[in-house]
Structures are given as structure tokens and as C-alpha cells.
Amino acid sequence: MAAPEANRCLELGYAGLKNTYYPGSDNYKNSVNSYFSISAQIMPICVIQPTSADEVASLVARLAHATTFDFAVRSGGHTIWRGAANGLMNKTTYAGSRWYEVYESLEPHSVTVAGGRAPTVGVGGFLLGGGNTFYTGRRGWGCDNVVNFETFSGQIVNANTTENADLFKALRGVSANFGIDIWAGVIVYPPYTTQQHIDAYVEWTDNIENYQDGSTILLWSHYPTVGVSIGAAYENTTGAVAAPAFDKFFAMPNQTKSTMRKDTREDLTQELDLRIGKAQSPDEDFICPGIVQAVPTIFSRHPAEKGGNVLGLERETDNAVMFQMYLMVKGEDQHALGHERTVVLREIQKRYSIDLGGSMDWEYLDYSDSTQDPLKSYGEENVACIRTVAKKYDPTGVFQTRVPGGLKISKVA
């Protein structure tokens, strides 16, 4: 650690920001160890946890104008690649929380929200990247259900449909550029039902417009102890049990496990938690889930009713299926090799989909890898919108040049 940089962190602490932590302290260790993926861990000079909107605004102003080192803002730390973000915000009206904390606080009031489907996902990053929820078919993306953003560039700026509406739209999908019971559970199937699942999922995706209260996520997973299996997570947000839309899935034989039940949102998201990075390698000693999720055209129709977003999905005219893959290994060497191979595999899959005429230009920012460029996939009009808004609200480019976390609009070709 360079002494001048450490001294500047100390100065921030002495300037009234009490929650400033340094390497060796328990709070610093807790922050560094709280990453969703250990491959994303980095060691900042210090960690600062503001506790109010005023503290955030003051901190950003000081970092931007009184220091020269880079800084980053982290919500839940759920992005799996190193450098996406660092630090750990404290709770400020949910923005720095993780979704399980939100659901815990809402359960006693018998209400819920269109939020993350895994408990450790952070609220802020999830919403800025779009946010695919159990309610996307019925309510649109998570970001489409935000009614106001508080942003901080040295002062507090509110963005909503009537105040700074251009910023409001741009924040819906832009990354870091500026207790109701439901019926749900997981069923596990043998791998030889793959083609049946593919056929059933195509039909499911095409039917979401007619059945907007359900959700199905398929996972083809390799585990060291069991080999390959298929897991399917089913949900109905109204609590209706086994709606007909699920019939083809439930009719498949030889189910090896089922946890289907009525339960709270908090408990169900805990079941879907996928702790990345705590796995094994080499040879067969690794975990690799391939996850399939529907992206029907109806997902792009809700945003227009709620102020719009910059995701660009309205350009897609056909229903689609999104494929996401994790590789969990042990050790830096295995991580480097595994990342190289998964990047190659993604490129092969992309070329294959293009050859079949089934490729989708759009990429989902919240699931993207550091080698991808999801902002560019939003389309020229939305890229131009984000650039204009970034220039207007961050004229000196602090969040483009001094905040390395996330995907930057200035780097889009």
C-alpha cells in the first residue's frame, strides 16, 4: 500500500466518515470476503460504508475533487469478474442491501417487490443492469418498476418520470455509468430428458404472453459427485399450484427430487442461491451449470408504459432463450484455464446460433462476462442516449475514468 494513498483514506475518515476501514480490520475482511464470486475479489486501499444519501454525495465529491486515485461503488458484489466493482455499501433504503434483506423486511407486511431471484444479489447492481425477476412477464424488468433514482455526483440528483427524465431512462440498464406466498420449488431430472426439456421450454417461452405469472429456469449442471443432471426451478407468483402451463415439465418421468410447495419469497430465493467460486477442479472435480431462461418479446412491451429503459429489447421481434454458464474451479491456474475455455465455448455457441439463423444481438448486462460488450448490444440509439446523459450529468468524466467498476459507455466502439 502506498503511503500517500493510505493517508488520503485516513483523511476521508477524519473528515466525518466514521465507517472507513483498512486492511487488517474485521470490517475490511468482512467486505472483501462477501463477494459472491471469489474470483472477483480485489483488495482496495480502504473500504468506506456511508450510511445516508448525504454521506454518499459528500464522499463522491471528495473522491472526485480532493483525490486522484480510482474508486468504485459496490452494491451486493454479485458480478463474477474481477474489477466489476469493489467496496460494500451499507444499507440506504435498500439500495445497498441484498435482496434477502429486502424480502425479510417486507414479509411481515405481506407485500413483495419485483426483485432478484437469488438472495445474495445486490439491489443496486441488479436494477442498473435491468434485473430479470419472477415478475418480468407480468410487470417488466426490475428496473422498469423503479419510481425514483437518487444519484450522486457531488450532489444528490433525483431522477424519475417528471424530474431528470433522461437520466431516469438511461439508468434503467446502464450499469455503473452514472411476505406474499408464491408456489415454487425445484425438480431434478435425469440427463436423458434433455430433448424433452428443450421441446417443452420452447413451447413455454412462446406461451409466456398468455401466462405471465409463471417462471421456469432450467439448469444443466455438472457436479463432481453425480455427473450431469437437469434441474428446473418453477414459480407461480400468484400462489396457484401446478398451472397447466407447467404440464409438459411435470409429465416427464423419473424425477429424482422435488421441493415444490407454497412458501415465502425469502425462503424460495434462498433455495435458488448459487454460491459461485466455492467449487473444485481439476479433471472431473468442478461444477458447471448451464442455465436457460426465456426472453419473450412481451418483456420489452412493459417498459414503454413505465418511462422506458435503454436495454434495447424492443428491437428483437422473436421470442428468445438466454443461455448463461458458470464454471466453478479451485485455484488461480484453474480459473485462468477455465475462463479461457468458457470464452471459447461461448464464441462457438454464438457462431452456431448465427449459422442456424437464431442468434439474438442483445446481451444481458447482469450476466455478462468481462469479454462481452452488452452496452453495444442495446443499439445505436440507446448507446447515443447513454453517452448524452453521461456527458450531461458527469461532464468531467469522473465515472468514466476514475471509477473502473462496471461497463463504461466511453469504451463502447
Report on the structure:
The chain is an alpha+beta fold and 413 residues long. The chain contains 13 helices and eleven strands. It has helices at residues 3-14, 26-32, 53-66, 99-106, 123-128, 136-139, 165-170, 194-207, 247-250, 265-271, 332-355, 380-393, 398-401, and strands spanning 20-21, 47-48, 149-152, 156-159, 181-189, 214-223, 227-236, 257-258, 261-264, 288-295, 320-325. Strands 5, 6, 7, 8, 9, 10 and 11 form a seven-stranded antiparallel beta sheet that branches. Strands 1-2 form a two-stranded antiparallel sheet. Strand 6 (214-223) and strand 7 (227-236) form a beta hairpin. The protein is globular, with a radius of gyration of 21 Å. The two termini are 35 Å apart. The model is unreliable at 86-96 and 275-282 (pLDDT under 50).
